Input
Amino acid sequence: MRFHILTLFPDMVMNSLHTSVIGRAVERELIEINAVNIRDYTQDKHGKVDDYTYGGGAGMLLQAQPVFDAHQAVTGSRKVRTVYVTPQGVPFTQKLAMELAKEEELLFLCGHYEGIDERALEEIVTDHVSIGDYVLTGGELPAMVMVDAISRLVPGVLGNEVSADTESFHNDLLEYPQYSRPEEWHGKKVPEVLLSGDRKKIAEWRLEQAKERTRRVRPDLFKKYLQKEKVLEMLFKQKRNNIHLIETLSRGTGEILYAEGESLLIYNRACDIVLLTAENMEHGEKMISLIPETCELAVTSQSFLNDLLLDKRGFQVCQECNQVCYTPREPLPVRHKDIRMLTRDEFSYVAEHYALGDPDSVKERIDAKAMYGAFVEGRIVGFAGIHEDGSMGMLYVDEKYRCQGIGAALESYIINRERESGHTPYAHIIVGNEESLRLQEKLGLYQAKQNIWWLVKKACISLQSVLNS
Output
């Protein structure tokens, strides 16, 4: 991912962002940070970039010309999402960080003095964002805060796959208390449960601590958590039919936009998908009006919603799918010895053989540590993975090695990893793919009675990277 920061103080930005975790990510070429000095683009022979405001008032204002020209020098004819750092913007949240982390390139514009000429902002800015209701001397510190928060969500930056899933604001809860050695310090002991080695009890304690801390410190956040828990309780009454909705909320990627009775609209900001289920037409019409304009993918649980989405928002059905999920408590046997997480070294092989995905989506899944390969004598012969929405898929095995149980081993391996992460493994199987359904039944996955539909605003090819083969 590439960050551009337009600023009057590039050294301040670069010195700060080239340390610790972010600095290591830059060294590993997982992210790139480019600080651009606005002053380099002024047409004033004295290097001046500011002037007095029309209409009077205290302070100076950054002029439109150097800001615009600096932006053009970076972007050229490319459309790059441009964030203006201002206390007048929308609040910066973890959900917005997740959304911005999906961009390949971001540009941050740092104001100074009394701000920036409005005409330049109208020309180049796509997002006005604030990190809080207070005023700073410039936009550099807020920009660095956002770059740090967004970078942590870029696959590979944190190193530890689960780190981002256990921190504050994940699943609308603050982080639980944590302890290190020694066991007793200043007369205060580490809670006994953390020394027990009982993972189940530790997980339960941490959840309760997170809930209590959130209730006490952030009642607004706790209210959202309680709403989600109430919705999940409703969804679990038909778990197999609702598994995609349940997992989207449980994994912390879903935002509830509408909930009434058994009608629900969830926005998966991480992959820009809306998921809808409705008990009547009236609720369906209300939900469709709430879908973000930028969203191009939808998943529905009732066919009448498809007609509404086509009529009101221009969505067309791309695929009807069976849903399957694995709910037994026992792990599956993996009958192939050499299965491992894929790296960029295997990218060419996957891109060549995965017909339903574009190269960028394949690369993103590999970088997200969400793809696994089967190897024979050190050579990759097949792969499978987890789509961005959380469902399993992308299964492929070389023709020479088919009918040897490698496909089943790959899926079993992923199912076990998903279970260890606290997820319910599930998949979407395109209606008519009987071979895949037989494999799911063989492995012990249960099929939902109710099908789901994938809809898309543009050509179906844009959807293929999130569908199972």
In short: The radius of gyration is 25 Å. Residues 459-469 have pLDDT under 50 and may be disordered.
